[in-house]
Amino acid sequence: MSDIKVALIGNPNTGKTSLFNRLTGLNQKVGNYPGITVDKKTGISKIDKDIQAEIIDLPGTYSLNASSMDEDVAVQVLSDTSNENYPDVVVVVVDIENLKRNLFIFTQIKDLGLPTILAINMADQMTLKGIDIDIPTLETLLKTKVALVSSKQNKGLSHLKKLIASYEGLDTAPCFVEQDTVLSKFAKDEKKKHHLETVRRYQFLKNVLEKTYSQDPQNAKDIRTLLDRVLIHRVYGYLIFFTILFTVFQALFSWSAIPMDLIDAAFANLSELTRTHLPEGIFTNLLAEGIIPGVGGVVIFIPQIAFLFLFTSFLEESGYMSRVVFLMDRIMRRFGLSGKSIVPLISGTACAIPAIMAARNIENWKERLITILVTPFTTCSARLPVYAIIISLIIPEEATLLSFNVQGLVLMGLYLLGFFTAILAAAILDQVLHITSKSYFVVEMPNYKMPLFKNVAYNVIEKTKAFVFDAGKIILAISILLWVLASYGPGDHIQQATEVVQQNHPSYHDEVLQAEVASYKLEHSYIGIMGKLIEPVIKPLGYDWKIGVAVITSFAAREVFIGTLATIYSVGNAQESTIKERMRNEVFNDTKQPVYSFATGVSILLFYAFAMQCMSTIAVVKRETNGWKWPLIQMFVMSGLAYVTAFIAYQTLS
Length: 654
What we know:
By secondary structure, this protein is an alpha/beta fold. Helices cover 60% and strands 9% of the residues.
């Protein structure tokens, strides 16, 4: 069996990744290009009984005029014969409705002398759109072979594989040849020379498509046109977007309430069963008081995380998210950002790490830097556990405003707060960093389509799994450490806890005595001592030392906050109760007032809205900016803003 290398390349939103998935199935792996942080996605495809192909999915790019890291990768792979990814054949993927724009990069690749196949995707739309293509003439003019495919309907792939298998017979001559006499006039002005060449390429493509491509205008006015007139309207577009956003956050609380309560109760019962049925000892206590509550503090939020990814995946798959990007570009430019910055800002609602990496597509360094610095302000999925449980503690579930759930309104408000803070921070940085040049914004408007259940489900499962396992590993390690620190302490205080409490409070019996003993042990443990040391700093924010410890540990990852509290509140607590109940019943030792009052809750929400609490994000910013200067500035400024905002909120509301 012989092996060949096949490179897939094309503009963004041409269905290139969907075609890659169809060709490779589950035989995929993701890595990095040597010496570069850009993702490298490869897969294996059985072309025929004798040929197996390694498919290389190159980053989506509009041309080979390298002005971004993604474009530079494509140029390096396609032009350097010594590159380990250098392909035997290139498949250029284009969209049936955007041939002129998509074919520009095809003409450039043909110049490289590589065997090149043109895959026209979304061919299932031809009849609906009234599109007709003269394939034989198109093949002649472009000096290539053409495959009409539909990655959505899994059509045309067999013909594409046959063309790949016979790649050695392809015409490798350029399809566009510029006359030297035309360009010689601008020989000394490379900028004008390159600009003229671009214009001439588009003129060539215009002539080609006039001879091979036709579309009935009557059929072109389909539902997409009608929807776009409304969804990207200067007024209605924003109203619809915020209505969708509003509906999503209402559903996040109402739909996830029952499964979250069931999971919370299940882990409380599991902890109690472990304590009851396993022999007494250190290991049992570690499981019941440390590991199970800590992990449960993350698992409880799986329903909300899954629903969030479900909604965002549905919007992306349907084609609506590209309209949101187009809409928000109008706002971005007023604050000194590139239109391309909206992609990292919106994707930051899932996770800041891939969002920051998505900023590589911004050519202008200062605009890219600003985008990297402000993206962590957008509310990521790691903040959702903190928001959800604090909101549920300080706002009654039955609270409504104009028949709408107040909990959902507050959650939506926090997401909007993060987004608009990012915009405001970008405007400030635009003035401070003195940005003088702007990049151009290009966005494809894909067709509206019914999301494929398989793609949505895969996206939800993979992203939720990544959240749970990434957070779970950190929380498991921290839970074990916290349990040890909360179970032991210097001297004989913990061993003598029962005796001391009985002497000081002889009237205490049974449950009250057990609760006081547990509290005494915790305060005299190592973690209690550490918490008391930082309490003067965090007390003005309305926090006790336990919340302070959770805040410190959550600088590793924000979602650790709940897991930390779950572990701390579980140590020595033999009563069966959920994490919500324990937090709701927590009181200050001196005043006996509830810890999680409205003022303290708002303070915590605002602190987590602004603080830079993710070591992985800091590491990515360091890698993307090639140094520690910007990530350190970012961390101290964001955390300082978080402290000041939380301080003002608590002092004002208490």
